[in-house]
Design brief:
Elements: H1 10-21, H2 31-44, H3 57-78, H4 87-96, H5 101-123, H6 126-154
Helix pairs in contact: 3-5, 4-5
Length: 158
């Protein structure tokens, strides 16, 4: 391994020599059993409590598809599209593919929520929208502050 220090640096030379003289420390005898037990506990968890990268591949794919569908449906309502294709066409396509009935119900629910949200935002004036966003920011900041204060009080070392 190549050293990056200057050859005439007395502090670096002293620190290097001092650290090399230190004895090697052995790990406690209980360390390996504790690590192995923790790994066994982690492996024993059900798939849904493990990190996403450890899920079975088919469930990862399903979660990815559902997440992409959720993002696409949210984008459908956020991006202005005028009087273009509506959700009824998507619902009819789902019905033609003989998909389960909950798919059509989901499109109905998403359509209703999207139209309600669009109408709500359009009905608010600039001042009302600014007040609403300011109030939401104030509530968020106050809960953040109260949470921080409660955490500091509960973890006070005095």
């Amino acid at each position: 391994m190549k050293s990056n220090r200057e050859p005439n640096d007395p502090l670096a030379t002293w620190a290097d020599q001092t650290l090399k003289r230190l004895p090697n420390r052995r790990a406690p005898a209980t360390l390996m059993p504790r690590v192995l037990a923790a790994l066994a506990r982690q492996r024993a968890l059900p798939w849904y409590q493990q990190p996403w990268f450890r899920w079975p591949r088919h469930l990862q794919a399903l979660a990815f598809v559902l997440g992409a569908a959720l993002l696409a449906s949210l984008a459908w309502f956020v991006i202005p599209h005028g009087d273009a294709v509506s959700l009824t066409a998507a619902k009819q396509a789902a019905t033609q593919l003989e998909l389960v009935k909950p798919v059509a119900t989901t499109f109905d629910i998403l359509g209703t929520l999207g139209h309600a949200g669009t109408r709500l935002v359009k009905s608010l004036s600039g001042g009302a929208l600014a007040t609403l966003l300011g109030g939401a920011a104030l509530v968020w900041c106050s809960t953040l502050g109260l949470g921080t204060a409660a955490w500091r009080l509960s973890h006070d070392n005095h």
